[in-house]
From TrEMBL:
This is PAS domain-containing protein. Residues 1-66 form the PAS domain. GO terms for molecular function: photoreceptor activity. InterPro entries: PAS, PAS-like_dom_sf, PAS_fold, Phytochrome. It comes from Arabis nemorensis.
Amino acid sequence: MKWSATAVPIFAADASGAINGWNSKASEVTGLAVEQAMGKPISDLVEEDSAKNMLALALKGSEERGAEIRIRAFGPKRKSSPIDLVVNTCCSRDTMNNVLGVCFIGQDVTGQKTLIENYSRVKEIMPESCGTLPHSFYLFL
């Protein structure tokens, strides 16, 4: 399957941490075009050290499942930064089984996290007496 045909963000980095793969969904989610992403250090794209740590682990042969990373938004999407992704990593290997880099296969969970955060905020500020409101009221929050 071609990366460009996928419905999830996929990107890859080589052993030095330079982006060497970036699909159209990663571009859509982050606002960073494929041409701009290629060759960029992964440290320029992530909010935290999580992706760099995953790269280091992958280079030792350890793959991650369900890890969360925050990636920066670019261009018009910049105001919505950062983007929360849940990713699985897989090692890229040569024919001698040496690890050459890592591939990140993600799911954008930014919307879900925002919804949960907003719900938690509303729940904190609502007075106890509102606990008796009809269930349908909460559907509009």
